[in-house]
Batch of 4 targets.
Target 1
Amino acid sequence: MNGYIVLKNSFLRLSLFYTVLSTLILGVVIFTLASAPASAATFNGFTVPTLAPGIQNITTGPDGNLWFIEAANPGKIGRITTAGVVTEFPIPTSSIADSDPRVITAGPDGNLWFTENNRQMIGRITTAGVITEFPIPLNSSPLGITAGPDGNLWYAEQGRSMIGRITTAGVVTDFPISSGNFATNITAGPDGNLWFTVGTDTYGGFIGMITTAGVVTLFSIPTSEDYPYGITAGPDGNLWFTYFGNTPKIGRITTAGVITEFAVPEYGSYPYLYPYGITAGPDGNLWFTEYYGNTVSRITTSGVITEFAIPTSYPIADSMPYGITAGPDGNIWFTETSTGTIGELILASVSGTTYTISGTITTSSGIGIEEVIVMLSGAGTGTITTDSNGNYTFAGISHGAYTITPVSWPGMEYSFTSQNVTVNGANSTGNNFTGTPTYSISGTVESGGTGIAGVTVTLSGAASGTTTTDSNGNYTFTGLSNGSYTITPSKSGYTFTPLNVTINGANSTDDNIVVYASGSGGGGCTPVGYSPAWLIITLINLTLAGGYLMRKKIALNY
């Protein structure tokens, strides 16, 4: 199929050249270049390190990253985070011969599965990058692949009139479709069957359906001069597919086989847009790429099409967008075949709709904690404070991935753990937090009744920290949980013995500890070059919920 497409593209360009040449000789203008589509969107672009053209399909993985195909020899599987960090994994057989990987999909086993069109292989890659290859019958030339409702992988055989099934253990079964036809792409349908696109050697084709038992039904497409190519399940319970050829269109087929076609607006007088990839978006629409139109386009379930120009410009053929998928961050991700780039369309930039992120922060007994500072980061940023009932709401939120982080300010006796949330076409509610009680250790370092400033006090044990006594000799450690701690003061001219303290959440008042001077039977503090001193350390445990006080007093006698 790849060779056939290249030949067909060459024929179209050559025909276009002679058409323009002949019209110039005759003095008639019938071909003009048009301006880019008017609709604007915000795009991000991430260059693949090897800068290899030929990036093909892309899908969302089970690990929250995007996975894509690098078809250029030697073939690779690429992984990109939503922040744009790319990692590449070479396909083992590509070191022997060009494996020509084509399509990748998330499998039912937590791995990614892909087709190798030239090597007659189905590949599996773990999210850690370990690749295993399974041979399939010769001349299969697998192209599209998808996870089926039966826990297997199903793939379209471009080289034979077959649909293949492979178990996660690598057992292969073939099902014939019809002689003289070749399958291209495949997807799981809303009816529990697999749906696929079929081309013929003389243009035209079919939309096919195969049950998990292998029973095939073919539905003829109305247009005879184009091929159906990409296919996906839509949010409306139908299947949606792309045509590439002389009259670019998007097709819709019901599970009963009724087909409706929607014409893609021509890019000026250059009609060969070649819609390729198509995916269901998180906004309830379908999104597709226009290979020569240099756009990422949207079609509603009622057939309204809007095109968004990719911001890289060459005449006619440009970045050549190909594969497309809805990302884990709520945006649309796609591949740019000619530039070796992974593109991202920020969905919020074209939707005009915003959402909210909300929740409540309480104690373990369900009492709302007010005046907690809540920070939002990720696709957007913001800071807000909880109300008297512990509630918070971030408004004006766009699609994307976010992190919510409540902050414990000094004096607040609670700690919190951050939460991740993705806004995807709806408000995100119930992002609640329960505060974990924390305590403090504080004290005073004195000499002859006068506080000593500038003493470094180090905390170790269940938590660590360092502070310095103030002008009155006071110090405080906050945000501590139950556990054992060691307090170690230090200052030039003094020698201190560390103090061990246990916080256990129990009330303790006026629990005095006398520490004797060195040589008198206990640990102590020996000032060097100073008169005898007193060191008083007060340990305070206080919770907002219960409200209790633990006080430890340490007297250093000389």
Target 2
Amino acid sequence: MVDRNLITKLGLSNEQIEQEVNELFTSEHTQLLEEELAKKVESLAPGTIVTGRIVTQLGNDVIVELGLKSEGMVEASEFDDPEEIVPGKEIEVLLEEMDAESGILLSKRKADRIRGWERVIENNAEGDVVKGIVSRRIKGGLLIDIGVPVFLPASQVDIRKPGDISRFIGQEIECKILKIDTDNHNIVVSRRKIIEEERYASKEKILAEIEVGQLRTGIVKNIADFGVFVDLGGLDGLLHISDLSWGRISHPSELVELDQEIECMVIGVDKDNEKISLGLKQKSESPWKSVEGRYPIGNKVTGKIVNIMNYGAFVRLEEGIEGLIHISEMSWTKRIGHPGDILTLGEDIEVQVLGDFQGNYIHLGERECSLQRRHQKLIEESPSFVVDEAMRAEMGTVAIEAARSVDYVSAGTVEFLVDKEKNFYFLEMNTRVQVEHPVTELVTGVDIVQEQLRVARGRKLRYGQDDVRLHGWAIECRINAEDPYNDFMPSTGTITTVILPTGPGVRVDTGVYSGYEVTPYYDSLISKLICYGETRGEAVLRMRRALEEYRIMGVKTNIPFHQHMMDSHRFMSGSFDTMFVEERFSMSDREGPDEVQAAILATLVAHRQGQQASQIVAPGERDTSNWKWLSRWERLSR
């Protein structure tokens, strides 16, 4: 701005003023001024980061002065903290667009991201360790904020499959930079690398110090049929099922669970192959050490039958001590073909109960659950063929009283063991909805889950005991990812094809689909197939058809086992108990047509195909009557 009054007081003409200015500012000064102005103008080109000063805030717009009497706008939402919007404060912004109508559009967030990227590149390289907060989950992994968003693939989250990676959101984690892509502004990091390095250092220390007889504390990381893998802090040790307990157990999950901390004794060390053997039962004295003093020869003892074999029966006298009754020692007077003729392990029968907050209780009949393996049920049906009306009423009364005695509310299941004389004994109560509840729903018409939700809201049961009537028969087969031809070995992999059976009386409860991955970290159950019929025979026939239609490809399943059972005379006649599958069943014993029958069937099929082929008329020799041709075509299409 020029002060004209000051010039007038000086009494100088315009020519004199220009002469004075020229004497003060040489050509050198003029050149410097022009260069600075050029730089300032160039800095206002779109795509550049400039420093501006906050002028004021108008609604959702923050006005920023950029110099050269230029102002731009930034959205207030781009400030992480509203208190940062202070007039006069200098900030860096990215000039996005210069428009005559909308003015200069700026972005603070993009400028911060670019500066953050530059700082990360300047201060870090591939292989460096960084810390950041997990911000969100995206396809294939997680985004971590280390100043800029970086990508953590799901495969790099942990050394084992981590399950639901969303649980890391909001946590600060440490990662190693695997790759920096400067062209695309991408950084890939790994948490797994750090864990592996820490475990390697810890493993070397453990191998140098570990000795047989030491007690070590670890975390259960995997449970298999044959044992448990325990993480000792850098090295996994195997706790075999035979070293878990002095007593008999069917599966390690009966004693331990995932992520449980346990103390074990080291019973074997192979440092060359980095293998550690652990024992749990070795922490206590063997019950066999003083067995001769507790059970002298000639004494009468009482025990529980725990296993029946062709050659005899095993009787448990106490935990860890079992005795064998040989088949030749079972009777002086009768010839016994199999120990099961006079001894039994019993039937596994469970009763469904419902209770509400008002003190009302009902039972929904029983379920037959004897066909099981390692205490895991495989086939369930309702009603049970061993339970009559009187026994059903008595068992139901006992189940209700058991629930009432502890003021139980919601759906629950009371399990009983039943012997050959139809005496029943309380086993346990499961305070949840069982996997096999659909068979009860089908024969009673009661939606158990719906009633459970109603009770949870404080509502009264809609049914009284007199309203419960059993109608028809329902059978459920648990479809597991297991190979019945290889001792039910779990099968893992990706399911490539799923074709579900349909039709009247057929129900499938499942959550798997084509592309679903079956992992070794969870239960092998992948679906439940339930069939209903007016009679048990009709339910079995529908189950046979449904199993034939069921197709799951990509992993092995136990569908062949269920087909075997549905065709078995023992199953049809009810000649089985809780140990039938483990002790008296083999896939190689599957009943089917012999060679003569197979030859007859093959001949009949060939004959039928020949009949159909003879009915086909060659294209050039078709009958003159279209009606005859249509009739034959319809016969072939049947």
Target 3
Amino acid sequence: MNGKLKTRGFVRRRILRILGRTSACGVVAASLATSQARAQTAVAPMAYRADYAHVCWEDESQSDSILVDWYLVTPWTTVSFAGEPTWSPDASRIAFSQAILSYSPTLSCSRGVVGYDIYAISPFGRANLTNSAPDASAIDPAWSPDGMQIAFARTITGAPWQIYVMNPDGSGLLRLTSGDVLQARHPSWSPDSARIAFECEIETDNPDICLINRNGTGLVRLTSEAGGDSSPVWSPDGSRIVFSTTRFGVENVLALMNPDGREASQIGAGIQGRPGSWSPDGAQIAFTASGADQEICSPVTETCYVYTPSAIYMTTPDGAYVNLLVDSGGDPAWMPTTTVAAPANLTATAGDGQVGLNWSASAVASSYTVRRATSSGGPYANVTSGITATNYIDTGLTNGVTYYYVVQAVNANRSSPDSNETSATPTRVVPPSVRVTANGMHGSVTLSGGQSLTVAISFDVGSAQVLNPAEVYLGVASDSGTLLWMDPHTHAFVPTMAAVYSGSLASFGPTTTVYYRDVSALTPRRYWWFIVVDADSNGVPNSTYFDYTQTVIQ
């Protein structure tokens, strides 16, 4: 890299020369951390590339040169030798390109870049989506507004760059451009995710702007000026495309045009740069352009160089306002501000010392936060956060106290408004009970000829939820080993089991189910009358609740 040479004396020339060879990496890291912190504070809603230029001493050639390292800056972390960030529409992930290095960058002033891969990063980790080495390279990622695909430029074994799409996990690779398109780069999605604008070469060395459908059909050449048009970026409302052009007599001037390529006009009096991103409200355009000259000096050769970095600016679409954002960097990408919808249909079910909550999912939520209060309207305190299910059981509560709940949906660093409020009052649960009596007695009763027998059943749901569906079975067993079931139609006892009732089961009883005017009709022996209440309707008595009583017929 060339720079303007200056000479400046150092008092401690010898010491600095030694230090310059051994600690340059530490100086770079410290300075970069400072510049990143300053830049990230200034443009918190952006991801971008931060550049750091320094003088590198090459032992082999006994000379120094300017070396520029670049780093992707995100709200979560920084990534070395990476740039071109693009946000997922829900702001939970960022796709970016990263250099593939042939050897460790600490061993030489040359970085040995042999290609690029596209990665996706989130607060929870990163993944290589393209795995291009050794025969391919991928750059210029652009996430579709519907979140379903990532468009990018790809080359294989030195062939021309072409536009591809893939799924966010790297699967579903599809080439869109071919044939008439000699080169293709810098894709940008329409807001409805139906089309992609991109930089195309239909004629050799004359870049233009083209459109293509997301499935690779419907190629349209939007511009065909003698001067080059490049780097299109679609506005959030879809009404305009900003691009860089030479058609107005100056190289790389920012311009606007309609999506059909008509009514192209330069921004302001001729702002030079390469567009990167519109603000979510469409009021600003962030772009990369030349920054202010910087002087960087070698502690080894006592030589200073003048270096002109790229920088990040923003402008209004009419060019009336231009502001510097980052003094050494590029590739600005504004964070989407898609509203996270509040969860709907929050309901609460009281239990014994607990409340069960259920709600409907929010479309772009990555997790949920449950909040609780002891009075309607709050103030609410967080009970738990980071849960990914749409239900939660809040335990350890005091019975008899009414609790009020809301739930928030969370995505990246944003939270939704509160959901609807719901409430529940935990109470001690009295379990259901079932009872069988013979002549009003529970346990055992002895009867002789001439006496009557009344077998009655009762069921109490207590404070538990009413069983629905439920089945009721009534049977009798004797000491002879027989087991009979009451037929629901004839009320006779038969070997085949059948439910005498099926459906919702609320409290009932006592209800007479068996009556003998004279027990002489029964063979003298021991009988056990029993009831089974089953909390399903599968035709099999699974004995959810069971009770019996005994009679002895003499």
Target 4
Amino acid sequence: MNVDTRARQAATDVLAAVDVMRRSPAGIESRAGSIEGFRTFEARRRRTQRAVAVVVAVAIAALGFAGLLRAFRSAPVPANKITPDNVNRLEVAWRGSIPRADGAVVGEGYVVAYAYPTDNISGFLEDCASRGGDCAPLWTADVTVGEDGTLSSTPVISDGHVLVGGERCGPTGELKEGECASELYSFPLDCRTDGQECPPRWVAPKAGGVLMMGSVATDGTYVYASGNQLDVYRFDCGEAGATCEKAWTRPAGSFGPVLWEDTVIVAQDPGHLAAFDVDCRSNGGECEPLWRAKLRSYGEPVVADGIVYISDWGVVAAYPVDCGTQNTVCEPLWAETWAEDVWVAKPLVSDGILYVLADRFVPSDDVVCGSGSCVPLGTHVWTYHAYSVDCVAAGDPCQPLWTTETRERGLTPTQGHGQIDGAGSGRFYITVSDRSPGASARLLVFDSRCRTDGGACTPDWTAPIATSESTLLVGHDLVFISEGREVLAYAADCGTSGETCEPIWRAPLPAGTTELVIDGDKLLFGSKEDGLTVFATDGEVTSEEGGG
């Protein structure tokens, strides 16, 4: 499973659990073993933030890992970018001297690692050493207060700063014991070089105290923070630790946000997709949407080429970003529907194709019991659909270009909601497993345009993997898979006829490796037990900056 997908998957599981309860209150207790604590949307906020902050902010590094691979401000594009031709020359370039790294983001010549339960972030130069050297962090920052405080969003790097959400928990200030509130911080990337604590550039209290789903985004002018409501701050709203006030806000629980030109789009409770002009207000007041659309429950939007895609129970729909003004109620440009008990995962757009996954649960006669209640076991049937984005954008009644189906047995209704693991290099990637005795997990790789007649596709190639929870990363015509104490690399085009491929590179990993990210000539791994490890194609410093 790749890091972007883990983020989406964590959010998907929470939203699905919440919506199962909304739909069937009588069924809450029967599913207590899977979704205990999510009693209602309001009552779940504190627990959601506690559970989801750890799961989602580490996981949604979709957003943190796959989505934050940006060009460096101070470093040239590496001449030795990782490719299938030079991947076998990867070696450890440096290790970050921190006890734990659950994830990292890369950008503008810096690496920012973050860790639980220490709940701090650490900044490094991306080329701080070579040939296996150890690097101490340039600076650290603790963004939590109190024993129960935790990181509440994945860090975001933009224009010389890192944005991250943290949490204060009482007893402190106005907060009583057991009460917590989120805050949004901005830190300069170059704030220190001596390894000491970095003071924030500014701090923004999150209205209502909840910042969740790892959702912080910026366009360089504003910073958008969702959670119990959408709050928007100016990127340059303060200096020297100033407390920032909102530019504008929109009450209602929010998931997203995503940006397209001068529009920010979020999914909001209860069951609405909403789009706002980023400049709608500047005095902290409440904004009305440009347009909105009704959802069956909850979803998380994605946007590509001016089209917003969002999934929901039994439906995926597409809306033009500019479909209305002045709180217009919009109808979808295009939609595909299934039965309302079919969960549709967050869609993915790549190489001109919209990928959609519909997850149908088929119960068996088996049950699992605990805490005085029982839930059925059964099979999740995951059907993947590929649509042409040109057809969707035209609003035509699109038929899938192709489909494929996988199954996983031995799960409860709220376990294992399917996910789209990755796409790129003209291919589509799925990790599958079967919990039946003797069954194994596999990576399946498909040509993204294997058919155009709606028929079922078969894999171009496969590879055995330790588990469907293995971390998968696609980039630079390569597929990396971390499997416990080892990382494997495969050429994306290693097969075309269903053959089983062999890795073209492998290397040992520290214990407790969590996530990985590829950026130019670097491959980075976070470890719960051994900090940060950075591989490079030749171990040499390629940036004009160095040192550390």
